[in-house]
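User: structure tokens for this one?
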Amino acid sequence: MKLEMAAKRLAELGHETRLKIFRYLVKGGHQGVPVGEIQSALDVPGSTLSHHITRLVSVGLVEQRREGRTLYCVPQYDELHGLIDFLQEECCVNENNPS
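Assistant:
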């Protein structure tokens, strides 16, 4: 993952409401969570929720799919794991080589 994309994803997750949404989605698993359920569980107004979900979609952390009249939000675990790997990839590389 490139630094620029990691920074964008971290910036979106750096907002308290978006982080709550994403954490709720991760709990829901691979099948996704209906938008109405997210709204009820987190007590976020519909227009506000839509704005925050759009931001998460824009950086690839969430995808949406429609089944009939229900819109599901699906966390993108591969992207999440990529972000975690990016944060850890140089872990402790200087541990044995002090500056």
